[in-house]
Structures are given as structure tokens and as C-alpha cells.
Write a structure and sequence with these properties.
heterodimer, A: alpha/beta, Rossmann fold, 6-stranded mixed sheet, elongated, B: abc type-2 transporter like fold, 7% strand, transmembrane (chain B), transmembrane helix (chain B)
């Protein structure tokens, strides 16, 4: 198939589904090179999936996707074009690393695209100047505002001068001023690089006005496409949002009509919510800064502001989830902090994320909450039926909430929040990501609650048109309320035409004030100079080397910095290892000593006492109070008070003198077999020496008991002290548990947090990714190993008899296998909890039981023997014990080195195969 | 009060629902209480089993051949004949744990009454085998020599005393009796801490815990729900594992009351699940929880007396370990299951475990709210 060169992207019959849910169905679409194209439509309609397919981040299920002149199914083509594509995933700074500074993030991406240091510095310099990030270049990404995060994301996307720029909802949750600046930036870039194609998805319909073309998407289908003007014209609407509603299929907009808000009847009673100078600090960061407001009963009060401006924190203080650092709030006249359980029954709360249980059905969720609020049981069924009807949830009542569209889920959340008929509702961004029709329906419910039931509603949003529906709103920014009044009054006060403009004016004023005050937090100010954003020369050489040290190094460096910036983890990893070494080195011991025994001496003659003295004098035994009866013996054995009981029958002394071989009975507690057998040997030995003594006293000579002398030589460990064998074994244990858990969680965390996208869409390949992540942990494990050796030499006083270099080399191979084991686990599990579980179960049993610490591997049977033969811990125990106690060198350990090396190859290979280069 | 109990019940049921929808966790729990127990119990023996032995026979006599034939499975692998010069190398590499050296003219010297020396080399780094093996090997060799010179006529013991040593509670010292139950105990510790702690961290990351906290529920109720639901899952798994794997498949006779043991397990689970919650309130993220878990769970498991004899630990460590319920759990589990002890004997340890569990639960409850506000 030939592709016309002027199309950047061609989609032909593309379908995609997740399980049973269809993301979109047979989409055909062409995007011309050099154009800008916007996908608009609410959340969850497949926009992100489509962008992911175009960028090569997702695996194609059906249809063909051609990007920059080739089939994206082909690995070779993807590798070839990935340096020309930039993809910024949805979510604020989703592909950024929050512990890294702006500069470090940018260098990381530069390295992934193979740029040498000088080139990187030049490009980064230009980018941060153009975007106004230059003054904050050493600030961690996690401490940036939403707008700045998105600018950084854009810089990271532009670092390699892409020909195709794909931005997935880049301005969602960003304040209106930053949003406007962001789009100006994009316009500047397009003016400089007219050949670059820009594809954007957005939920803010008005943003699409400035694009060459737009595509309206809903429920996996394209509703309309064309220039913004033509789409509006065809739909007979003034705004894109109205056009969208008009274009929706009939059954979806049934009952949809312009929203009418009856005026609020003031009754002059005391306010429902009062906040005075409410302040919350986290460390040196002030999330909410002296916020005050009053909300009267039945009023709908809105908080308008960007993500991270303090809306959620304020609401959490009102609900008592967070204590206030300063100031106070009252609900119905009672202080919010101490309001207690009875107050919670009068308040309904809906948090930002969908926080109901996805594993329950709609009805089960309602039922659970009805019961947790202790509605009278006979009324529960009726109340649920009423709510199902009122919220239009009848037809999904017995569906699992997991499969419901976002709009329906949000209605359910609201139903749950009001199931106990609260007098007040606190709603944190309840309509984020909900389509306009569903949003209007949601507001109808709110208005009904407020006007007909007198429920006070406190709601936060970042949608301007929603804020306009509130009785009063507060404009929030950076923890402070900028202005507070009715929406109409705010517009007139700031001499603006729309609420958005009024907000922007407020923000600009606030920035100006901050600049004047030159305060430390003035960082949010954006000064954009007009220098070029991108470099003029483009250097896509299209070559894709099989393994690039620079890309692997980018990941190593990133991982190292993250590790260093989590001092808790680093300290645990280092000190924890040392601590466990001390505890286990002394604590895990196979010496059998200090055994508690007691005797039942029915004879009480000098002969019987002499025998018992032999036992009492042994260093292995500790005498306990004598046994008084058989019942006493049984009880004390059963409770474990004594592990050995001796019974000397009456007449022992007499029979001994008469040489009639009197009997002595010894009972050993065999519940721990190893200990029991050792005790058996001790008791026999004591019996033997008693006989020898007896003979010497009676006959004056020692009779030879055997015709031959059996000489036992304990080699390597003459004193037969457990510590000499245990310390090397404990080293082996500690070098597997901690490194493997650290690595396993390291990779899965990227999957859960979303930065794994960088593996999917940049030229980095799986091997570079895995090895790059592994290196810092190998280094950390070697530092741990050094600690362990120092402890062994000093605290335990165990000399290393063999070749030290041979031990270090063995440890090096071993920690590569143990970190590799963590990588393997994390390559196929997708959640951190499963990674933790899998690593714990996968390492503990084999290393403790089957690796030669307890029993030589040769003595194992069945599955245990197989595991013991291949599990790396066994090999390292051989190396450590061999070098430390047996004085071995390199040549004797060659088989172990070989097996470990082979294990490294197998583990790495399996990890590469199991890790997916594309999302499904 | 009744309302509280109902809340705890409802939330716990919800917890069970969540677990049912997580096939990976269920698979790991099943594996931990079936295959894992079986492999450990049958694969590794605590006494002398399949020991690797070699013989350097420089005598090549009838007696030396008989000695060589006397080492029998399952205690020993069939002895391998090696040369005198191979001793160092084969022992260095750990190929053989025991090497018996029979000198030249051994048989002749024995018959002549010259009391020749016979050497047994033991790799003393194989801690569990070396000591027991030494006893076994010396008695096997002595027995063979005595039989040989007496022409296989059984000799009457002419010892002046008759020391009758008997093993109580496990007459044949079968190690699978020990290993199977101890592995169950280790897995209880490991799984209950991870299951409860990680579930709490996940709820915190997903925000559902905040949702509960704004309802008329107290942290104690939320925690109790987690304790009983996760505890119940493990308790049922333990009961099934004990009946199906330990008793049926491994044929281990259990001396005491299984119900009493399960009651003791329930008490211990109260501790371990509370500990899981406590650790989750300390950790700010899953990687931190993972490390904390390793640091706490490993000592609980390896120093409990379920792997190595606790009497031999340094006194200081023993005293510290008295505060670890795992030590008491191992102790009363052994008392009940192997030695048939009843409640009259184990109740003080039950009380200690319950007391420590209560303390941890209280710590966790105190930190619960605080840890949630510290997330941001």
C-alpha cells in the first residue's frame, strides 16, 4: 500500500476494545502533514486510545494505522519513526518524574533520544527560556503547579524536534491563564516549524476553535469532522459545545434541555458553613492560606480553580479528614474538627476520584452505604428504589460499577452521598471528565436538592460554565481566595465579558502583586520571552542502534537520583541490611545448647546422683526442678518446659553394684527432629563417659570398648560453631531479599504511575530499559555486600581464609541475579501489591530452605532438589562458604560462576520477553 | 454498640468481595498453603537424609567393604569410592559432606587387636548434618566392626547400665511432621502482614479510605473489619491446609486438638493483621512498605524457633524475642499439635499473644488518621 506523502497519519477501519468494552469502532481518518487537528469529546470515549495507537504506545487490534508513512504494526517502522514522534500522555505530568528537577527531566529525555551533552544543554536552554521555566530549572517536577508541569511536559516532548506532536488533554485541570499561555506557546512553535503536525485531544470544547480541523468523538464513534466553523455551521449551533449536544444521537440527549436555576430564597437563618482564616500547611508548603467564607442554608457555593490550588484540601478540612493548621471552620454552628459521628450523618461527601467499590454492583454499593448509615432496615429497599429511579440508574442496578461509563458512575456517587438525606453536600470536582449532557443532568439533580429539599451544596470545579451556575463562587489560586461573589457580580467587577476573562484578570493581578512583593513563592509567574523554541536544524538520522549506552545510562541515572531522594528507602536498604545481619548472624544458630532437662530420681542413691551429675555438668544441659511424678513429667514435656526427661528407677544403685545392668529411661521431646537427634547423641555420650568413669574407679583401667578408634575430624570449622557457617549464609539471604524487593517495586511503580509510557513511545528498547534500571540496584547491593563483609570481619570476627577477589566477583554475579529476579517478577505483574507478594513468596522459601543453609542441596528431594540446584542463593552460599571458611580461590568456584552467569542470561532474556513494549 | 458491630461486619464482607476479585492474590494464597507446604515438607529433611558420603578405601578388605555397604538410604546416598588425593578437592567443592578414610592393613590390625585409627572427615559447614552425621557414622562403623569380629553372632550388651533413649511425640523423628506445620506458620506471618498492610495502602492510594472516614465510622471499626476479613481468609486456608495437606497428603498424625490450634492461630492473626496495618500507617508508599515488611517479617519468621532451636540464641536476643508473638505461636503450636497440650497448658501464651496484639492494634489506631493526612 502506498501512502501519499502529505498525510502524517492515516487510520483505516481501526477498532479497539478493552475486554467487553468497545473503545471505538471502525474509525477511518486522515490527518494531513503540517496540520493541527483536535479531537474533542468527553472522557472515556476513546480519544486517548486513538492517540496511543497513532503514537505507537498501544498495540493495534484491528484495522491499519499508518504514521509518518508506514504501518505502525511493524516493529521496524516504529523504531524508525519513534525519534520523530513526541507523545505527551494524559494526566498532569504523567510521563515526568516528580522527584527529578526540571533540568534533570529534560536531560533524561534528551539522553533517550541520544543527544550528546552539549547539544542537550543548548536545546534545554532554549526550551526553558521560551516557556518561562528558566528561573525554576532546579525545582523538582512534583513541586510545580499544574500549568508549569504541562509546560515541562511540552518541553520534554519538543526536545528532539518531532515532526508529529501528540498531546493528550494537555490543559485539563490547569488554570485559565496558564491554559491561554500554553496554547500561545503551541502557536509560536507551529509558526516556527510549519511542517510539524500537531494532534491534540481536549475536553474543553472552546479550545478547539483555533485548530485547522477538529474531530468530534463520542462513544467510540466520530460524530463530525471538519474545520471548526463548518462543524458549528452543520450542527446549527453557536458554540462547539452546543454543536456537540446537537450532534449527539437522539436517545442520549433525551430529556436534555437548557438548565433553569430558580432563584435562591434567602431565609436569613444562621449560615450552614463558616470558615475563618482556614490554613493548612504541609511542611513548608502552604496548601490553603487563610481562606474565609460563609455559605447559607440551601445555597450552591462553588470553588473555582486549577488542580492543586487548595480546593480539595479545604474540603478535607471541612469534613474533618484533615486538621487545620490554623483558623477554624464550623458546620451548622459546630466546630468541624470535633464534630464527630453525629455530624457526619448530616453531611454527604463525594471525593474527587470515584471512590466507591468497583467490585460491587450499583445496588450493592447503595445497600452497603445505607446500612453503614444505619437507615432503618425496612425502609432501605424503598429508599434504594427511589434513588435508582431518580438518578436514572434502574437499568444498571445489578451491573458491576467497574463497567459503567464515568457519567453514570458519578450519578451513583451522588446517589450514595445523599442516601442518608444529608442537609449538606460537599462535592469535590464531581463532573470532571463527564460529557456535557451528563453534566447537565447531574446539575438538574443538584438544583432539585438545593431548591426543593433545602440542601446546602459546596462544590468545586474547574469548568467555567459550571461555576456560572452557582449562587456564589470563590476564585481560588495557589491556596488563596482571589475574589468571592455571585458570578455576574464578578464579571462586572473586573470589567470582563465572561467569567473566564474575569478569572484571568484576577490571576494577572495576583501575579503582579506577588512580583511586587518579590515573595519566595513568586515562582508561579510565567515570563515568556520570544526566542525560538526549537532548533532550526533537524537531525533525525533514522538509525536505531540495537543497544545504546546513553539510553540505558539515562534510566540508570534517573533511578539513582530517585533512590537518593527517597532517604527513607535508602536508609532502610542500607541500615536494614546491617541490622538483619547482626540479628541473624547471632540468632540463626544450629548449635544445640542450654537444653532444659529434669529428672525423676526414684532411687536417690549415691550411684543415681553421680549419673545425674554427669548431665548437670555438661555445657549442653540446664537442670530444672526435679520431676515429682509421671503426670508432672508428661505435663512439663507437653508444655515444652523441658526437652529431656530422665527417669531412674528405684533399685538402680543396688542393681548397679550387683552388675545387673539397671535401666535408665531418657525421654527426648522430638517435636523438633534435628534438635532431638542431637540430644540423642549428647545423652549417649554422657552415658558412655559415665561408664568409663565407673570402670576407672572400680577397675582402675579403662576398658577398650572398640577394636578400632574412630577419629572424627570436623573440617573447616574445628570448633563446630554454627556462626562460621551461618554468617556466609546470612549474607546470601540478605543479598537476595532486599535487592529483589527494591527492584521489583521500582519497575511496577512506573507501570502504576504511568511513566512506563516513556518506554512505549521513545526509542529506548526493553533491554536498555531493564539494564538501565538494574544497574543502580546492583551498585546498592554491592555497597550492602561491603557492609556485610565489614561486619563479618569485625563484629563476628570471622576471617576470610580464601581469595577475597573471588568472593567479590561471586557477590557481583549473585546480586545481578537477585536484582534480575526482581526485574522478572515486575515484568509480568502489573500492581505493586502483586510484585511484593510474588517476590516475597518467590525468594523466601527457596533461599531459606532449599539453598544449602539448612541442609546440603545434595540431600534435597523432589521439587526442592530441582529448585535447590538452580536457585542462585545456593550457588552464592557455596561461593561464600567456600572462600570464607574453606579458603578457596577462583578455580574451585568456576562451576558456580558459570551457573550464575547462565542464570543472568535466562533471567534477563525472560524479562525482556515478558515486558511489553506496547500497551494493550 | 450493636451498630458498631454491624458496621464491622458489613465492611469486612466488602473486604472479602475485594479479595474475590483479585485472582493473583488468591492464586498466591492457594500456592502458599498447598504446593509450598508440600515441597518444603517432603523436599527438605531436618535429620540425616540422603547425606553425600565418600569412602577412601586403602585397605580393600572384607571388613572395609562391609563398612562401605553399611551406609544405606534414606540416611545416606550410596557411598562413592574416591582416592586419598581427592579428599580435599571434593570436600572443598561441597561434593561430599562426609569422607571416611580406611587406612591400609585396617582389617588385619583390627583382628590383631592393634586398635587401628579410622578417620571420618566431616564438612562442618553443613550445620544440620554434621553433628548428627558424626553420631550416626561412628555407631554404624562400630557396629560393623563388632559384628565382623564376632562372626555376626549378636553380642549381648555387657554394659553395666542399660540406657534406654526414646523419642517422645515423634517416635521416628520424621522431619515432615515438623517442617509442614512450621512452614504453615511462616506463611501465616508472611501472608497476613502483606495482605492487610498492602490492602490498606492500596485503599489509601485510591482514596476509598477517605470516603469511609467521612462516614459515621471510626478508624477502629475500619481496622477491625480488615482484621477479621483478612484473618478469616488465612484462618480458613490454614484449617484446610492442615486437614488436606498436612494430615491427608503428608500423613502427619496431629496429637492435639485442631480447634485449639485454630483458636491460637486466630489470636496470632489478630496480632499479625494489626501489625500489617501498623506498618502500613508507617510507610508512605508501597516500596517503603515492602522494605519495612522484609525488615520485620524476616526476624519474626527466622528467629521464632520454627527453623532453629531458640535456646541457643544469645540471651539478649532471646529476651527480646519474648516480645515477638511468633515465638509464642511456634511454641504453643508445637505444644498443641505435637505434644497434645490442652488449654490448661497453653493459656498463658495465648494471653501474651493477645496482649501484644492489642498493643499493636492500639498503636495502629492512634496512627491511622494521622497517616492518612500525611499522604499529601
Amino acid at each position: 500500500m502506498t501512502t501519499q506523502p502529505d498525510f502524517a497519519v492515516r487510520l483505516n477501519g481501526v477498532s479497539h476494545r478493552y475486554g467487553k468494552t468497545i473503545a471505538f469502532d471502525t474509525v477511518d481518518l486522515n490527518i494531513e502533514a503540517g496540520h493541527s487537528m483536535a479531537f474533542i469529546g468527553p472522557d472515556g470515549v476513546g480519544k486517548s486510545t486513538l492517540l496511543g495507537l497513532i503514537a505507537g504506545a498501544r498495540k493495534i487490534q484491528a484495522g491499519t494505522v499508518e504514521t509518518l508513512g508506514g504501518d505502525m504494526r511493524s516493529d521496524a517502522h516504529r523504531n524508525r519513526v519513534s525519534p520523530r514522534i513526541a507523545y505527551m500522555p494524559q494526566g498532569l505530568g504523567k510521563n515526568l518524574y516528580m522527584d527529578l528537577t526540571i533540568a534533570e527531566n529534560l536531560h533524561f529525555f534528551g539522553r533517550l533520544f541520544g543527544q550528546p551533552a552539549r547539544e542537550r544543554r543548548e536545546r534545554i536552554d532554549r526550551l526553558v527560556k521560551a516557556t518561562g521555566l528558566a528561573p525554576f530549572i532546579d525545582r523538582p517536577a512534583g513541586k510545580l503547579s499544574g500549568g508549569m508541569k504541562q509546560k515541562l511536559g511540552l518541553c520534554c516532548a519538543l526536545i528532539h524536534d518531532p515532526d508529529l506532536l501528540i498531546l493528550d488533554e494537555p490543559t485539563t485541570g490547569v488554570d485559565p491563564l496558564s491554559r491561554r499561555q500554553f496554547w500561545q506557546l503551541i502557536d509560536n512553535i507551529r509558526a516556527e516549524r510549519p511542517g510539524m503536525t500537531v494532534i491534540v485531544a481536549t475536553a474543553y470544547m472552546d479550545e478547539a476553535e483555533n485548530f485547522d480541523r477538529l474531530v468530534m468523538v463520542n462513544a467510540g464513534k466520530i460524530l463530525a469532522s471538519g474545520t471548526p466553523a463548518s462543524v458549528r455551521h452543520d450542527a446549527g449551533a453557536k458554540t462547539l459545545e452546543d454543536a456537540f449536544v446537537n450532534l449527539l444521537p437522539e436517545e442520549m440527549k433525551r430529556g436534555h434541555h437548557a438548565l433553569e436555576i430558580p432563584p435562591l430564597a434567602k431565609d436569613g437563618s444562621e449560615p450552614a458553613i463558616v470558615a475563618k482564616n482556614l490554613t493548612r500547611r504541609f511542611g513548608d508548603f502552604t496548601a490553603v492560606d487563610h481562606v474565609s467564607f460563609e455559605i447559607s442554608k440551601g445555597e450552591i457555593f462553588g470553588f473555582l480553580g486549577s488542580n492543586g490550588c487548595g480546593k480539595t484540601t479545604t474540603m478535607k478540612m471541612l469534613t474533618g479528614l484533615l486538621p487545620a493548621s490554623d483558623g477554624q471552620a464550623w458546620l451548622f454552628g459546630q466546630p468541624a474538627e470535633t464534630s464527630g459521628l453525629s455530624m457526619r450523618k448530616r453531611v454527604g461527601y463525594m471525593s474527587q476520584a470515584f471512590s466507591l467499590y468497583t467490585e460491587l454492583t450499583v445496588r450493592q454499593n447503595l445497600d452497603l452505604h445505607a446500612r453503614l448509615f444505619h437507615l432503618p432496615p425496612p425502609t432501605i429497599a424503598a429508599r434504594i428504589t427511589e434513588l435508582l429511579g431518580k438518578f436514572g440508574l434502574d437499568h444498571v442496578a445489578d451491573h458491576s460499577t467497574r463497567d459503567l461509563p464515568l457519567g453514570v458512575r458519578q450519578r451513583l456517587s451522588l446517589a450514595v452521598a445523599i442516601i442518608h438525606r444529608p442537609e449538606m453536600l460537599i462535592l469535590d470536582e464531581p463532573t470532571s471528565g463527564v460529557d456535557p449532557v451528563a453534566r447537565d443532568r447531574f446539575w438538574e439533580l443538584l438544583i432539585d436538592l438545593s431548591r426543593n429539599d433545602g440542601v446546602t451544596i459546596f462544590i468545586s470545579t474547574h469548568f467555567m460554565n459550571e461555576a456560572a451556575r452557582c449562587d456564589r463562587i470563590s476564585l481560588m489560586h495557589a491556596g488563596r481566595v482571589l475574589a468571592s461573589d455571585t458570578p455576574a457580580a464578578l464579571v462586572t467587577q473586573h470589567g470582563a465579558e465572561t467569567l473566564e476573562q474575569a478569572f484571568i484578570t484576577c490571576l494577572e493581578q495576583a501575579h503582579a502583586d506577588e512580583d511586587k512583593g518579590n515573595s519566595a513563592t513568586a515562582g508561579e509567574t510565567d515570563k515568556t520571552d520570544n526566542g525560538p523554541v526549537t532548533s532550526l536544524e533537524s537531525n533525525h538520522d533514522g538509525r536505531h542502534s540495537l543497544f545504546s549506552m546513553r539510553r540505558a545510562y539515562a534510566y540508570s541515572l534517573r533511578e539513582t537520583m530517585e533512590l537518593i531522594r527517597d532517604p527513607v528507602r535508602l536508609t532502610f536498604a542500607l541500615l536494614g541490611t546491617a541490622l538483619l545481619m547482626l540479628v541473624f548472624g547471632f540468632g540463626i544458630t544450629f548449635d544445640v545448647e542450654d537444653l532444659k532437662y529434669a529428672s525423676l530420681d526414684r532411687d536417690q542413691t549415691p550411684e543415681s546422683r553421680t549419673f545425674l551429675e554427669g548431665l548437670a555438668g555438661s555445657r549442653y544441659f540446664e537442670e530444672q526442678a526435679p520431676i515429682v511424678s509421671v503426670a508432672d513429667m508428661e505435663r512439663r514435656m507437653a508444655s515444652g518446659d523441658i526437652t529431656l526427661a530422665l527417669e531412674i528407677p528405684s533399685g538402680f544403685g543396688r542393681e548397679l553394684l550387683q552388675e545387673r545392668s539397671p535401666e535408665i529411661a531418657a525421654w527426648i521431646d522430638a517435636s523438633m527432629p534435628f534438635r532431638a537427634e542431637t540430644i540423642h547423641g549428647y545423652v549417649q555420650g554422657i552415658g558412655q563417659s559415665y561408664l568409663t568413669d565407673l570402670a576407672r574407679r572400680n577397675l582402675g583401667t579403662v576398658p577398650s570398648t572398640l577394636p578400632a578408634d574412630i577419629e572424627i575430624r570436623y573440617r573447616y570449622n574445628q570448633d563446630f560453631k554454627s556462626i562460621f557457617a551461618m554468617v556466609p549464609s546470612v549474607m546470601a539471604l540478605l543479598l537476595i531479599f532486599i535487592p529483589s524487593v527494591l527492584v521489583a517495586l521500582g519497575v511496577v511503580r512506573e507501570k502504576e504511575l504511568g511513566s512506563i509510557t516513556n518506554l512505549h513511545v521513545t526509542p529506548v528498547n526493553r533491554l536498555e530499559f531493564l539494564l538501565g534500571k538494574q544497574v543502580p540496584y546492583v551498585v546498592l547491593a554491592m555497597v550492602n555486600f561491603a557492609f556485610l563483609v565489614i561486619l563479618a570481619l569485625t563484629v563476628f570476627g570471622i576471617p576470610i581464609k580464601g581469595n577475597f577477589a573471588a568472593l567479590v566477583f561471586g557477590a557481583f554475579l549473585y546480586v545481578i541475579t537477585t536484582t534480575g529476579f526482581g526485574l522478572l517478577i515486575s515484568s509480568f505483574v502489573s500492581t505493586q501489591i502483586a510484585a511484593l507478594f510474588g517476590t516475597a513468596i518467590g525468594t523466601m522459601v527457596p533461599s531459606v530452605l532449599f539453598s544449602g543453609m539448612m541442609q546440603p542441596v545434595a540431600s534435597l528431594e523432589g521439587g526442592a532438589a530441582v529448585i535447590g540446584a538452580v536457585f542462585p542463593t545456593g550457588q552464592f552460599i557455596n561461593i561464600a562458604v567456600g572462600v570464607i571458611t574453606k579458603a578457596l580461590g577462583f578455580s574451585a568456584l568456576i562451576p558456580e560462576y558459570l551457573i550464575l552467569s547462565l542464570t543472568i542470561l535466562v533471567l534477563t532474556g525472560a524479562s525482556v520477553l515478558l515486558l511489553k513494549k506496547q500497551d494493550s | 454498640m450493636l451498630e458498631r458491630l454491624e458496621n464491622i461486619y458489613r465492611l469486612g464482607v466488602k473486604e472479602l468481595f475485594s479479595l474475590r476479585h483479585d485472582p493473583v492474590l488468591i492464586a498466591l494464597i492457594v500456592w502458599a498453603f498447598t504446593a509450598s507446604i508440600y515441597t518444603a515438607a517432603t523436599g527438605m529433611s531436618h535429620d540425616l537424609n540422603n547425606a553425600a558420603i565418600a569412602i577412601v578405601d586403602e585397605d580393600n578388605s572384607q571388613l572395609s567393604a562391609r563398612i562401605g555397604d553399611a551406609f544405606l538410604p534414606p540416611y545416606f546416598h550410596k557411598p562413592v569410592q574416591i582416592g586419598f588425593d581427592e579428599i580435599d578437592q571434593t570436600m572443598d567443592t561441597g561434593l561430599y559432606t562426609f569422607v571416611v578414610v580406611i587406612p591400609p592393613r585396617f582389617e588385619a590390625d583390627v583382628i590383631a587387636g592393634n586398635q587401628p585409627d579410622l578417620q571420618v572427615n566431616i564438612d562442618a559447614t553443613a550445620m544440620m548434618q554434621a553433628g548428627i552425621g558424626a553420631t550416626y557414622i561412628s555407631s554404624i562403623i562400630s557396629e560393623e566392626i563388632v559384628k565382623y569380629i564376632n562372626d555376626d553372632v549378636p553380642v549381648e550388651s555387657d554394659d553395666t547400665i542399660n540406657l534406654q533413649i526414646r523419642y517422645a511425640f515423634n517416635p521416628n523423628v520424621t522431619s515432615s511432621w515438623f517442617t509442614s506445620v512450621m512452614e504453615i506458620i511462616n506463611n501465616i506471618t508472611m501472608l497476613s502482614i502483606v495482605l492487610t498492610g498492602a490492602a490498606l495502602i492500596r485503599e489509601r492510594e485510591h482514596g476509598t479510605i477517605e470516603h469511609l472516614l467521612v462516614m459515621p465510622l471510626t478508624p477502629i471499626e475500619i481496622m477491625m473489619a480488615k482484621v477479621w476479613a483478612n484473618g478469616l481468609v488465612i484462618l480458613v486456608s490454614v484449617g484446610l491446609s492442615l486437614a488436606l495437606v498436612v494430615e491427608m497428603m503428608l500423613d502427619v498424625p496431629l496429637a492435639g486438638s485442631k480447634m485449639l490450634f485454630l483458636f491460637g492461630t486466630a489470636l496470632y492473626l489478630f496480632f499479625s493483621t494489626a501489625l500489617g496495618i501498623f506498618l502500613a500507617t508507617l510507610a508512605r508508599s508501597m516500596p517503603q512498605f515492602g522494605l519495612l515488611f522484609i525488615l520485620v517479617a524476616l526476624p519474626l519468621m527466622l528467629l521464632s524457633g520454627g527453623e532453629t532451636p531458640i535456646e541457643s540464641q544469645p540471651a539478649l536476643l532471646q529476651n527480646i524475642m519474648q516480645f515477638s508473638p511468633s515465638v509464642h505461636f511456634v511454641s504453643y503450636a508445637q505444644a498443641i499439635l505435637y505434644r497434645g497440650a490442652g488449654l490448661d497448658i497453653v493459656w498463658p501464651q495465648f494471653a501474651v499473644v493477645f496482649g501484644i496484639a492489642l498493643a499493636f492494634f492500639a498503636f495502629a489506631a492512634m496512627r491511622f488518621r494521622k497517616s492518612i493526612s500525611a499522604m499529601h
